[in-house]
Fold each of these.
Amino acid sequence: MQRLLARIMPVAVLSPTIILTTIFIYGFIVFSVILSFTGSRMFPRFNFVGFDQYTRLFANPRWEVAVENMLIFGILYILLSTLIGLTLAILLDQKIRNEGVLRTIYLYPMAISFIVTGVIWQWILNPGLGIQTFMRNLGFENFTFDWLVQNDLAIYCVVIAGVWQVSGYIMALFLAGLRGINTDIVNAAKIDGAKTWQTYRYVILPELRPMFLTAFVVQAHLAIKSYDLVVALTKGGPGFATELPSTFMYSTTFTRNEMGLGAASAVIMLCTIAAVVVPYLYSEIRNERRSA
Amino acid sequence: EGVEVLHWWTSGGEAAAVQVLKDSLEAEGYSWEDMAVAGGGGDAARTTLRARVVAGDPPTAAQLLGMQVTEWAQEGFLGNLNSVADAGGWNDVVPAAIQQFGTYEGEWVAAPVNVHRPNWLWMNREVFESNNLDVPTTWEEFNAVAEQLQDLGIIPLAHGGQPWQDATIFDDVVLGIGGPDFYQAAIIDLDEDALSSDTMVAVFDQMRTIRGFVDDNMSGRDWNLASAMVVRGEAAMQLMGDWAKGEFIAAGLTPGDEIMCATAPGTEGAFLFNTDFFAMFDVDAGDAEAQQALAAGILDPGFQEAFNLVKGSIPARTDVSPDNFDACGQQSISDMAAAAEAGTLMGSMAHGHAQPSAIQGAMVDTVTQHFNSDMSSADAVEALVTAVNAAR
Amino acid sequence: MSVAALDDTPPSGSEQRAEVDWGARFSRIAVYGVLIFAALVFLVPLMSMIFTSLKDMDEIRGGNLLAPPSDITISAWLKAWNEACISVQCDGLAPYFVNSLMIVVPAVAISVALGAINGYVLTMWRFPGADWVFGALLFGCFIPFQIVLIPMARMLGIMGIAGSIPGVVFVHVVYGIGFTTLFFRNYYASVPKELVKAASVDGAGFWGTWWHILMPISWPIVTVAVIWQFTGVWNDFLFGVSFSSGNNQPVTVALNNLVNTSTGVKEYNVDMAGAMISAFPTLFVYIVAGRFFLRGLMSGAVKG
Amino acid sequence: MTTLAVQDIKKSFGPTEVLKDIDMEIGTGDFLVLVGPSGCGKSTLLNIIAGLENQTSGQVVIAGRDVSNLQPKERDIAMVFQSYALYPSMTVERNIGFSLEMAGVAKATRTERIKEVAELLKITDLLNRRPSQLSGGQRQRVAMGRALVREPQVFLFDEPLSNLDAKLRVDMRVEIKKLHQRLGATIVYVTHDQIEAMTMATKIAVMKGGIIQQFGAPKDIYDRPSNTFVATFMGSPAMNLLKGTIKKDGAAWVVDHGTEKVAVPRHVDVSGLREGQEVLVGIRPEAVHLASEVAHDSRIDQGWEFDRSIDVTEPTGPATLALFEVDGTEFHASLSGDADVQAGQSYRFKADLSKALLFDALSEQRIAHVDETNQPQETQAA
Amino acid sequence: MTTLAVQDIKKSFGPTEVLKDIDMEIGTGDFLVLVGPSGCGKSTLLNIIAGLENQTSGQVVIAGRDVSNLQPKERDIAMVFQSYALYPSMTVERNIGFSLEMAGVAKATRTERIKEVAELLKITDLLNRRPSQLSGGQRQRVAMGRALVREPQVFLFDEPLSNLDAKLRVDMRVEIKKLHQRLGATIVYVTHDQIEAMTMATKIAVMKGGIIQQFGAPKDIYDRPSNTFVATFMGSPAMNLLKGTIKKDGAAWVVDHGTEKVAVPRHVDVSGLREGQEVLVGIRPEAVHLASEVAHDSRIDQGWEFDRSIDVTEPTGPATLALFEVDGTEFHASLSGDADVQAGQSYRFKADLSKALLFDALSEQRIAHVDETNQPQETQAA
Ligand SMILES: Nc1ncnc2c1ncn2[C@@H]1O[C@H](COP(=O)(O)OP(=O)(O)OP(=O)(O)O)[C@@H](O)[C@H]1O
Ligand SMILES: Nc1ncnc2c1ncn2[C@@H]1O[C@H](COP(=O)(O)OP(=O)(O)OP(=O)(O)O)[C@@H](O)[C@H]1O
Ligand SMILES: [Mg+2]
Ligand SMILES: [Mg+2]
């Protein structure tokens, strides 16, 4: 009996999670896939329409913009916040005085709801109110920073605000990773003549591999779901130049009462994520096994 | 027993207005459970509403905008208010154009609270007078005035680059250039000929012209910041609904005095409206009584006056005395009565009183895309037709 | 090294740390330079918020939104805290804090605890298919909330916890476990397996090993997970607004109600003060949790 | 009574076969020492006995109970890990007392026991430190303490003294032996130290490449290694092996290794020998003396005297090692510590053949002794 | 030339004073072995030399350059860590070649060197594994490989062979010595193995409690330990110390330890002795023989014969240890391996006094020998 318990314990412990995940994530995904083949509007209706919703989706110029923005936003957001977060974490790990204060400063953007900080960012990035005016008042008459009002550049403003918000958290994540590394191997690298950057590049960062995976999942998740960010900062504008799949999904499903179309966009979104994430997950897990 | 009311009037004057309703209901001995969800002009509240309904726990009443009442009624979630309506004589005092949204298949399902008029032009009197400018009554005049202002270094039109603000102007331009019949055909009936007509091209031309009168930093600006520009005299005019009055009053100015109000260029004689309804959900018998009381209370003339004085809009029934309203309000009331007579009282597309959400969204998309890019008018017309068809 | 005894000053030079040769004073200055510069950049929006919250509305309407206040007033803070009218209630944000706390505490506790246990099982008690379970959990993190809203509402209705605080807690737990599991599993991946072996020889069972051996070295990652969950749940709007009802709405919904008005007058000073007030608990958590970020836990754990 | 039986254990890590059919039994109170070259599978075997690794096939039986499928904590064992595996977050005191804590032993008793063990290991003043604040040897002693504080059926020690100085090691050895006697526990002990192996074991198992080469009492292993591997593995410097051919020199058998002839030791059973057979003569370095020193030693009744010029000398304290060449192979002699020899000079040596061994050069198996021919020779594990 | 000088090094961890004024110098090509009980500060000292820990005060000078404030990589050292400190995510090959990679050595050369080192360490077939897939001894060899692949000014080895079997250890010892000779590098080597210490060192420093007790050539340390600590620390089993009082027995000085009298060894300078002085006579176990065995050994010109009943015997292979009691203290004798002694029986022993030492019981310092009285005695490090 006891032996049996010990054997099934791991699975037993995981089972609540497995059950919840199966129903509330995968069940819902299946549900959405089904919906995407229906003409559902305000509520789920099972009047199947084949691939109509997908056809409509791809004919929709807003979706096109949303996908394009997703690429720009997703890539830049992940890259920049990783870079900044990692840099800050590494620098903070150099026996810094007042580390706690700095850490909290980097983290605070996460704390404040974007419902409000979005307004601030609007002001800061608005050429008539923020940085541009500030610089011009300082005497740089030709200073121009008007991305927010440029159709094709506004998305970069969303990137800036997004990176500002999340970098601190990524920093915390990497800092936790760094703090878990055995100091002996760092010493060994010093003896082996590695320069600082080499120590990080070859010894410490490889140890942080799992943390990179964690950071990536967190960032990708935030990028895909950055709804507040866009709504608060640009409301999707100018025009719908800063539309993202998340805002598209939301407005089609809830504002415009096109649940079928919304579901179709969600399904496409999930497939895209799967195309990026699954190979990454696979290679990470495999790599782990190899070195285990 | 009592009511649970879902609405998005959470702050400032709006909240105060709700308080009026709550007080009047509580005076009748019913409790009021407040379920307020602000944001996105009711977007968030509607999402919540759907979650509540799906969970099998709908509120007693929910604030909805015109076309949405119809959409909810179609789904079969709304209750029947006919007895209250008959008792209150709603059919007689509520203009037909508004009744059309409050009823579904001949039965009352929602009680109208107010009437907003989106097609106002607000102007800074000092700017106009010191520069000897006249209030424009057509789009040509508007263009001329705007050019003069531009030469003077004053921003002609204060605007916030958000899709609904763009669409508000679009409504005005369609109505102003095409006239009420064209508006009816193109915007309300979605007549394809009208949608793709030369008039529509001209409308987009005018939109492009207007874009030239707006400062470059308009993107994403909230409407109240645009109003503040008019207050400060940085900008001369704003095309905005009558809710802008609240912002002017808060700045210490009097609408109709320091801030002049006029109907949007070319829309004289017509009246675009948007109305907030409280849609009544099918509820248990226990709560039904309170629900009926709520509906009756909403249409009560005393309440209608008190509420709309606070809210800045005008009553949804025509028999309320205009005396206590400000100049612009009084003009609104008389204009509405006239328009109702003339059959030019029409729902605003930008504010959800012309098309179901999907089509409205598609139209707004095209408008805002055109306004924020260098799309040609012809292309815009084509895009409009395509988008509308795709959303049908 | 006792965790409790640590304060925020980093260990003195005599401690062994992973600090690498930033020997020269110059690079030391450069490090501080970069860190402080970054801190200033990060602080700009906060400054602007503080400035605005200390102005009165006339100054905001009339002046530069980013400029410091000419005369300072804290009335906006008082108003946001307990005077502002949010719809028909004029008690400010204060009453909603309780709701948020009642949501956030169990939601964070449960999801972090579950995540820690899951991470533990997935690394130390591997069973066939463990990687698949983990992969599936991870992928689940990407589910768009838009598609879960309606079915979740239905499920909550069926379970009878719709419109209640337990319902909101439940939703946050469901969509939080993926992340907390990820955090812990990837942190535990680098913990030497020998520790768990030693514990099992010492007679520690499944739970004993987790509690006595792994948890004490998990502080940095607990911090990370708590920060993530706390921030996510505290700042959540969508679930809070969809699955709570009138009198148990979280503070974000109240803040949103305070800030958002479609046709009314905006009071930016109150908005900013409200935003900062509602962020205090999160900031508090950051500061408290930050104490567990110090080094010295794993070093010297094993010989090999 | 058999306390611990390891039956047909096999273990592979992926394609790497680490243990190949390990089979042995020890009784209650036995002290089994596992020796073998680095990487031969000793730690893996301990892990399998402890239940920390799953064997690919085979059973582990403890006190008559098949524990193959039991959890480590159900097997009633204590273990010292080669890598220590101290709990980084716990103080030394809690590290040591952890198993008692888990067993629900009362706080007072625990403190008492921890104190005893700490005294024994001389780490009393370290009890409040954490592992990261200890030196290597101190960590190792804490690791020992974790096992010693318990009273299990079986103790598993994986090189528990490797990082201790000789003095401490002697003390620890004594303590472990005392513990062994006091508890009568069964002990499996991995060590690389020959003295440890010889002085502590009741049984030694010599492993190589996942196979047990010989299993027996220490004296047997040392004096009667079953093959050249065991012979050269035990003892340092290793036993010298001289290659030669069996010849008949009158009635006597001799091994002709080219330059000289060495008599076949008297205790070797010559019945199986044939002329021309290739053999290896095994002579331990400590059996080689300076002829001058043992000139009067009557006990060396069969010796082999030869002259060689020393290549290298190494004084180790108690002994002086001399290295020279015999027939092209290195030959070690362990002379007395005060032997006054110098490299480059020639000396006369005398090897005591009474302990010399003879191996078949082909099979590398030892050729049996006279007293063994009746009973079957003990080679592989029982 | 002095390659490595450690000057007035002090080190504290918080309140714990670990090194107390360490001061020593070694020249190019010197092989310094650090020995001392567990926790005496050996690893700490190595870490300070390497620049991995900051000394509390004092300087480290390498090749005439004060490196106290330099980074480890600027000090041109290689180190084997007691805890191995292998890079977990790298293969064995990359672990070994990492320092070369950092130094920008070309790929081909690197592979070549790694291969050589791997062969030497017998880990060629493990090159593609990761540390977690290795046995303890294999890990230790990889750790060695990381140092051996380089050619620095100074090598620091922290118990590099503790987890290897005797045979491998002998091989490694030889390789390290070869490396030492080939590169002429300076080596600092921590070990607990006396044979390693005695055979490899050109200089030995015996530490205790953060203080160097004696610094000198191996033979000096062994034969002329400056105090009882050094005397008992080096050598296993430890030197026997008999407490007694100086007496004059006619012209001869003797030590009276109650039951018997032992002559003061002839090489001890008696000029400082006074009657009634409390002393300790140090006799190494290997200097004690069965009287019967050495009856004819003419070299033992000054002996002490006594009868004792043996309490415990321990055969270690090459030797048999006998434990008995002299005046209430334990006394070890290391008899020849084939000595046929049994516990419980009484034997006549003869201790060779030619190597015996005399210590003052109070100061525990050795009483000088005749040949030392002219020159100052070498005790502390230079
Ligand atoms: N971080 C620390 N805090 C306090 N004391 C420490 C710390 N690190 C080491 N020590 C102490 O310093 C002393 C010297 O340690 P060191 O590692 O140098 O010993 P060692 O001579 O190498 O011993 P061993 O032979 O056991 O490896 C030990 O007593 C140890 O307990
Ligand atoms: N995870 C693994 N994957 C592949 N091979 C492994 C793994 N773990 C151990 N081995 C191999 O198994 C063999 C036996 O390892 P084990 O640790 O039992 O050796 P050992 O006898 O204890 O050696 P040592 O004396 O060096 O500690 C070694 O050759 C090792 O390389
Ligand atoms: Mg091992
Ligand atoms: Mg050490």
Note: Residues 3-73 of chain C form one domain.
Amino acid sequence: ADVTIPIIVKDTTSFYWQIVLAGARKAGKDLGINVPELGAQAETDVNGQVSILENAVASNPAAIVIAPTEFKALGKPIDEAAAKVKVIGIDSGADSKAFTSFLTTDNVQGGRVAADGLAAAIGAANGGKIEGDVALITNAPGAGSLEQRKQGFTEQLKAKYPGLKLVADKYADGQATTGLNIATDLITANPNLKGIFASNLIMAQGVGQAVAENNLGGKLALVGFDSDEKLIKFLNDGVISALVVQDPYRMGYDGIKTALAASKGEKVEANVDTGANLVTKANMKDPKIDALLNPKL
Amino acid sequence: MTPTAQELHPAPVLEPGRTILELRGLEKRYPGTHALKPVNLAFKSGEIHAIVGENGAGKSTLIKLLTGVMPRTSGEVLWEGQPAALATPHEAMALGINAVHQEVVLCRHLTVAANMFLGEENSRFGILQQRAMVREAQTIIDDLGFDLPAHVMLGDLTIGQQQLIAAARATVRGTKFLIFDEPTAYLTRKEADQLFTLIRRLKGEGVTIIYISHRMEEVFELADRVSVLRDGTLVGTRNIAETNDAELVKMMINRSIEQVYHKEHFTPGAPIVETRNLSGKGFENISMTVRAGEIVGLYGLIGAGRSEFVTSLYGRHKKSAGQILWEGKDVQINSEHDAIKLGMALAPESRRDQGLCLNLPVGLNLNLPIYKRISSNLLISNAKEKAEADRQIAGLRIKTPTRGALASSLSGGNQQKIVIGKWLAHGAKLFIFDEPTVGVDVGTKAEIYRLFGELLSKGAGIILISSYLPEVYELADTLHVFRRGKLVATHGFHTASHEDILTQALAEKQEKLGGQT
Amino acid sequence: MSIEAIPAEKPKRNYNVLFGLTLLALLVLLWIVLSLATPSFASGNNIANLLRQGSMIAIMAVGQTFVIITGGIDLSVGAVVGFATVVVAMLINAGVPIAVAILITLLVGVAIGLFHGFGIVKMGLPPFIITLATLTSLRGIGLLMTNGNSININSDSFTAFSRNSFIGIPNLFWMVILVGVPAYVFLHHSRWGRYLFSVGSNAEASRLSGVNVQRTIYMAYTLSGLCAAFVGVLLAARIGIGNPTQAEGWELQAIASSVIGGTSLFGAVGSVHGPLLGAFILATINNGANLLNVNSFWQRIITGALIIIIVYFDGLRRRGK
Amino acid sequence: MSIEAIPAEKPKRNYNVLFGLTLLALLVLLWIVLSLATPSFASGNNIANLLRQGSMIAIMAVGQTFVIITGGIDLSVGAVVGFATVVVAMLINAGVPIAVAILITLLVGVAIGLFHGFGIVKMGLPPFIITLATLTSLRGIGLLMTNGNSININSDSFTAFSRNSFIGIPNLFWMVILVGVPAYVFLHHSRWGRYLFSVGSNAEASRLSGVNVQRTIYMAYTLSGLCAAFVGVLLAARIGIGNPTQAEGWELQAIASSVIGGTSLFGAVGSVHGPLLGAFILATINNGANLLNVNSFWQRIITGALIIIIVYFDGLRRRGK
Ligand SMILES: Nc1ncnc2c1ncn2[C@@H]1O[C@H](COP(=O)(O)OP(=O)(O)OP(=O)(O)O)[C@@H](O)[C@H]1O
Ligand SMILES: Nc1ncnc2c1ncn2[C@@H]1O[C@H](COP(=O)(O)OP(=O)(O)OP(=O)(O)O)[C@@H](O)[C@H]1O
Ligand SMILES: [Mg+2]
Ligand SMILES: [Mg+2]
């Protein structure tokens, strides 16, 4: 494989990004190109990703696929990189017009979908009444995509579900255990709590555990974001009401494929929305959804 | 010197005891130092065997080899005729060899009792018998006549008291062979006597004892035989009855010293400092004057409050009442900085804790008080820094390979010279020396005393604290006796006898330490 | 230079109890204030939550305290917890009986502790460095083993444990007692505990007294590794996954608990009950803040400020003894 | 116990240079190996990247070294960096002239350092605790100020600075020189530098020798806070945002760089060039691993192992001098 197209994700230590990388890896194999898998050690490590991008450019690749951790911060470095190689964006945006192509989930839209899912679940549990207190638990402050989900979620609540009151908007420290503790305390403190949105994988693991510990499955609505084996089990057991699931595998696969095409000077689509899907126990067996939940790693 | 010690204490007739421990070609090399050249020596059962020698002669090294603290480079040690490896302290202890090491090495955060039983705790089913140990420790301490409580933290005792505990500790351990490495360095006469009583008692019980000291009269008072080390070589062994002070000193330093106490008398000039009814923690109502050209000696037992008094004078600790006059003017000294600005210099009593930055170079230690002076604008003048350090090293004959060697690599006596030397360049008017010759050999002592003379001749005044009576007695123009924080007597040069001074310092029995905090 | 360390001796013991009481008083005060401020605090359910939440840091803090008493520090404990969740999860999913899986995981913790001892004693590395290096590497190894995924533990009996209670007290808190009582006896009433203090106070003196200093250091780090691995098992049971990036930053929480509990970072001063109280004080602060719905950002600020205040007053009281 | 610290003395200086050389040799060796292993390593572009990447940790490590030499530790520096990005971003967006904004940010760093000095000197808190508390609180304050969001800095001239070069060398690396040279002179050729060493070696002896120990401690923490705030400004320029959660864990990297560079965590041993070399060694390891496409999990493992190896051999060489 002489052609090299590195893929730079936000955080190599999370499952979500491992699926993206798996997609990219598969594409590399299918297309016969070399795909170095790069990424920072935390989603919030902006500087780390800038350095990785610089290093990747220095190794003279055919093109680069990147999931920018921070909209503004990665703008200039991407401009600079694009001066030397074609840059394909995936997952999140950046303040740059230099992307050759862009395959994203709209995280704001994802937040809206989560709000819809939560409202539906609350309705189902309370005889159709969409009323009561809800809470939002965010993995850690300072991560752009999580802020966008929060934005979409809160906007949608205000716009469509006046009966739902956001009583707690909590940040954890990136630890599932902290999510668990916060959720337990929120359940204790708010007897009228009807639903929680845990806006990423780690928080959904922790909050799901809190719901399970308190045997509130089916009584307290819980919507998570992204999926893994644990969350699917929670979904099956009725602990989690719904998951907003993106298509990370496709982002990785198509990202590399598009990058190769672009590097050959072929014309590629400028914007692709890979979508955010609401998964519930009802639709989880759909082949399309099932493929999202069980990506072929 | 005053009447030689052996006239006062006739040495006991030496029994031809059997050899308990024999060294054959014992040798130790440190990287860069040949500390002990092959030594052959036999110790007889039940004898008190003194070892003397200059600072750095290798005395402590010898002890470290015998107690398994360090491995030997070559040679053989026979214990009761059998070769002994002595690879670990544990092994030495199992044979019955114990030591009270030179620097007090016990655990400050453990109680006296815990220290005494450290490594040999009584436990039943794995549970420590703490009360029993405290009781037992107290019994031993009382039995030895030491007036100390067993349940307090060791760190709450003075260095001298800790030293006594270290000695008492050895008696717990089924000792057959006990080594004392300069045990009296921090003791006053009273504690030293208690210790000697202990040593004689142990000897009576058949324990063999090695006794290391820089104080000749102690050697003559206690020992049956004495061995002299010089530069790591055994120069000779003598029966105590067949030798004298002069011979030993000659053997030690390869030259003779006519006079250890080099005392010049100057006519005292104007008062430099005057205290009026100064009080603080540990001392009360102290009034004294130090004039240019005089040495004011402070004598007392351990804990008499002398160190507290001078450190308060120096601004390190708070004063509760009283007045200080500096060159006749009323002054406030609220920090050591104030004191130094006025022209005071303090060589503190513990060189390890207060005197030296041990892991820094000799040069830096010597220059520490004068960096301001040898900096031009922002930067240190390298040339001046070197010149100043070299001047002190040469002037005080500090034995160091270079000014860049770490202070910790010097022998005790030479470290002490740094503590003193750093103030010489600073040009103070009042020098306070708190126990300046602890652990210092005879030759070096003579040099330090000569230095006092030089300082006096330049118009400085000196406060000299010593728990070693002969030192203050022979050097001080004015001698103040402290007892439990009070100044109880004042004498001129040689106007009172040793006995009088001792009596004044002792007078009443010291209170038990237990209730002090 | 304080004396609370050794409870054995009469006048000390009084003081020690007093000291313990004062932290306990603080904890009780916090509880009273919170009970008045929010109705849900004093509910049995919440107390159970609180006990659960503080348990894991408490156990880590005890292990950490052993190390700190010797004058060292163990930065790896958070990483060990994360790594242990992975090990136990993999073993259980591979069908190893739960008891055996737990045992093996604990042995892994012991092995890591022994490695630290080796680095310090034999290689002469500063504890800060060797445990920092382990922290870094161990997360890497865990990530490699899991490929960055969480491992979902498929044994319900294992995960049920941490949720259940025994005579009304959460199992997790029983585990604190299970660790705390032997640790107390060990530290304050056995010769090995005594040696931890003596090594921290003066390693050379201890060696000269025949104390095996090296073995003592091995022991301290091994116990710390063991406690951390045990917490890893508990954590895996509690959230039902093995994930090497868990427990990030817990080492600092454990150290803070220990210091709040009166342990001196200079060594030779510490106890078992102090760190336990410290951990539950921190847990109470977080729990209370959650119940009062204090903004998460304010929670951080308050925690930092309280750490300063508690340690300051503790220091004051001791100096003014 | 080493002597490289004080360059004033002849035999030391030789040794000092030798020691510096040996780390330098290691760095050069790494560079040669990487140049052979991957064609892109030796490219001008990559060297520029490498210099940029190592710069920030290098500057923090220098400040940290001052503190460690006094026998302390400053865990807050990562949080100070993050906080400083917020401060400078807000000021610039509020229309404050860039130079003034930078100045104010640096003063904030100084104030934080002074607070640490106050806590240690006046309140008697252990450095570990007061700086840990600041770490926690400062992130909270920053988050409160930004409400958890990033602040986009809307001044292109500010952000351009960090990506530009001057005579072929990245501006960020010039900043290392800008900090390093005065720091070198300060530490090794001024009396305040000597006082840092003497306080770290024996505070009481220094005090009795007329050294103002309190002022020296204030100075060390102030310089560390200042360096961290400066790095915050550089980071804000580099990533174009203010965000309080940036630079998480950088304190440990700074400490590791310092120790790799020969600083002793027991105080009184350290230099300025050592931490710089240490930081660039770590940056090279990361850069090389990226270029060689080493799995990022393996990178962690390798980093941990290399820290152990480097510190071990450094220790060996020094003991065997
Ligand atoms: N750990 C060590 N490493 C290197 N050299 C050492 C060490 N310990 C002692 N030395 C050197 O060995 C020599 C003998 O030292 P030793 O401590 O035995 O002297 P000493 O006779 O006990 O002196 P003093 O009367 O001052 O206690 C000295 O030159 C000393 O500097
Ligand atoms: N570490 C300590 N803890 C508590 N009290 C102490 C301590 N050291 C000394 N003291 C007390 O302070 C008082 C004065 O002691 P100080 O050390 O000044 O006496 P000194 O005459 O200089 O004796 P020394 O020969 O021991 O130095 C005494 O009451 C003593 O018991
Ligand atoms: Mg000696
Ligand atoms: Mg004294």
Note: The pocket of magnesium ion (ligand 3) is lined by residues B 59-60, 102, 181 (CB under 6 Å).
